[in-house]
């Protein structure tokens, strides 16, 4: 990690202003050299793909902070996707080209001059412990760029390449810290934006970071690290901005480990690989690392590390010190994530439909009751009075209700926790639109269902309502990036969080505020949170 200081210093300057261009089809000069983009799927938008923001993290640079870009000669073609970072292959990433020289990003812009100063939206993809990539079709930024922003989609290291901590790696860092390489990649990408985005008509003073699932967790951690201070003005988290005493926080893409636990997990990982030294780790093919990653997945909590350096404090400690990023925020959850399912799921499963993964509400009643007593302990009886589970159907219905109550109350309390000394705007939502997929009546508005609507990237089976929802969602997001307020002409009014009014904005099936749960249920959840450790 001794490279971090030099890398961050290299990121602190700003390129000299380039002359205006008549057509973004002409080469653009960025750090490293000239690049030539291509027409995006919308002919009004240009896309520059695979732009390196750091050197290839290979050989001796593996398990180190990102290093400065190596310059190139001539004009670099930027019309095709760059490599996405090594990961376990899933259906979501079929067709993507994987390799370690993956610290690159895509830029979508409709600007016609470098003198323009359009707001910038930087997307950090989600996926299992950082799996995924900028070249996934769902993240095409053309539609957002068409509405007047510059969109940046970032690739970063995940899994062991982005999160491995060991005692040896900590010692060699010079800071007694290891494990946050993926987060440092994202800091480096934001510094690249500060230095280069004006060349594409973007305004480095108006950067909004946004992400979903593990990407939302990344946005949360970027809001905690001093290394990202001043690099963004606004933040959007699609899932998982939760109160620091909500145990769900440590079950999702927002979880973390202590340096001690991370190093112990790293030693277990090395035992699985049969190696003892960092030098051996750096010589192994990345495929071997990810074979071991798959084998270790149920043993090791792969995530970022509270290392005392990149992440000096956890959530509650950072908020208490008022040391988190002082930025506007927009955040929310999906109606049927965190274990909930569509209201029609019980009957559909009874008729033979497959149970989707992680569906708490579709557990057999006996298993659900066991979960209730394990989770709520001495408060389980009080929970069951508010959310009774006397039959299988009732257990399903009230489990859904409890999960949805929690995903209203927890983000609202997060906003209370993070804003008492701030005057920044916060907007909270619940997304309720189920995509028209074959399992529509089981999964509902599942985890990740919002992403395609936010990017306004339609599927062939979309109906008029889907297109309307996507237009409104993307407009809210772009308005927020432009002004810090999602409201705008033709959109239902979305009230800001004021610390007093207990309400959430529903986005999807309807666009209106929805009331909070009953006072008795709010009181229960507050007492339950108070009984949990601060995270």
From TrEMBL:
Keyword vocabulary terms for this entry: Signal
Signal peptide start-end: 1-22
Top-level taxon of origin: Bacteria
InterPro entries: AB_hydrolase_fold (IPR029058), CarbesteraseB (IPR002018), Type-B_Carboxylest/Lipase (IPR050309)
One Pfam family matching this protein: COesterase
Carboxylesterase type B domain mapped to chain residues: 28-525
Protein name: Carboxylesterase family protein
Protein species of origin: Novosphingobium flavum
UniProt lineage: Bacteria, Pseudomonadati, Pseudomonadota, Alphaproteobacteria, Sphingomonadales
